[in-house]
Amino acid sequence: MRQHPPSVRDQCAQSAPYVRTIIGGALDAIDGAAAWVGAITSTMAPAVTELATANARRLIELAVRATPELERVHIRVIPESTGIRVEVSHPGGPLEPTRGSSSSIWATLSSQIQDFGSRHSPQSGHVMWFLIPPREVGDRMNASVAQYPYVIAWTGEAVQQSLTFRHHPEVGGLRLTYRDPHPEDWVYGVLRARHAIARGHGRPQFHRVHTLRQWRCMEYRLCQVCGRSAVDPDTGRTWWLLAADASSPGQGYTNAPPTCRDCIPRASTQCPQLHDTAAVYSAAACEPYAVLGTRFIAGVGGPVPLEEHTAQVPLDAFRALATVLAEQLVVRLAGLRREDLNMSQASR
């Protein structure tokens, strides 16, 4: 009797996560792999099947094109309590987020799904992922949080930072770490503060930014207000609201994420002091330069903050970075120019 492969519905009834592998360079396998993600999603949340399929295809194509032949791309669909996580991993390094199709993919994801990101480790290679909630959950969440800036933190996202110092051979001494460290905790050689991903849970904290969302805005040039791309589609330049006298001609440094042209009036309204202290700029490029964070020293009961306020530490200060818990990314802006744009009438 002929054996038929189990249907997707049968697979879902058996176990999770669900894993599929395709070969690098196999462009003809992209559509089939994306359809497989959609089929699994349809058994759990039919309303978001089309959205999951389209976004999975974007990441799968990016990974397949970046993976040499005979190397493998792994796709995982993972049901979680907050939604459905789709992961696409490949053996290469992180893909450049500010050029070509990769930039548009991240901008699209930021506007369509609950959360997304990437991580890299020697064991799993480069992993790109997105989390998509059931449509009814997403609609409620979007309606409740849309009035608040994308980059701010919420009280429901607070996480206890359980820190310690441990000897690390590359540092040649003690390095700040979590008691339960994960490879993705370190970015650019510095320990990054943890936040839960629960935007809209609890109360908005206008005086605090969400560390992961702030870094995401900086690295992918996303708007701090709406979370969509802040890159001008006509010029390729990125819109920024900066202190009017804080930048030298042609360059500048900032920990404030960009603001898309359409959101400049809203940012001005929500933060009235911008009328007096900020001006509209655009930048040709940006690159990570430093972090803002808390420096620690080893104490009897564990790490102790070195100072009351956050410090700016350049990314090339390797020894100093070993003692820092980074909260915000600072970027260097290149090709900076002031734009003759009225903040109250910026949107087109």
What's the layout of helices and strands?
Blueprint: H1 8-14, E1 18-23, H2 30-44, H3 49-66, E2 72-80, E3 83-90, H4 100-112, E4 115-121, E5 125-132, H5 135-145, E6 152-154, E7 163-168, E8 173-178, E9 186-187, E10 190-192, E11 204-209, H6 211-220, E12 238-243, E13 250-254, H7 264-270, H8 274-277, E14 278-283, E15 285-299, E16 302-305, E17 311-314, H9 318-321, E18 324-338
Helix pairs in contact: 1-2, 2-3, 3-4
Oligomer: single chain
Total count of domains: 2
Distance between the termini: 66 Å
The chain-level structural class is alpha+beta
Describe what is shown at a glance.
The chain has 348 residues and is an alpha+beta fold. The chain has helices at 8-14, 30-44, 49-66, 100-112, 135-145, 211-220, 264-270, 274-277, 318-321, and strands at residues 18-23, 72-80, 83-90, 115-121, 125-132, 152-154, 163-168, 173-178, 186-187, 190-192, 204-209, 238-243, 250-254, 278-283, 285-299, 302-305, 311-314, 324-338.
What does this structure look like?
This protein has 348 residues and is α+β, with helices and mostly antiparallel strands. The protein has two domains: 8-141, Heat Shock Protein 90; 156-289 and 330-345, no CATH class. The protein is built from nine helices and 18 strands. Strands 9, 10, 12, 13, 14, 15, 16, 17 and 18 form a nine-stranded mixed beta sheet that branches. A five-stranded antiparallel beta sheet has the order 1-2-3-5-4, covered by helices on one side. Strand 2 and strand 3 form a beta hairpin. Residues 1-15, 96-101 and 135-139 have low confidence and may be disordered.
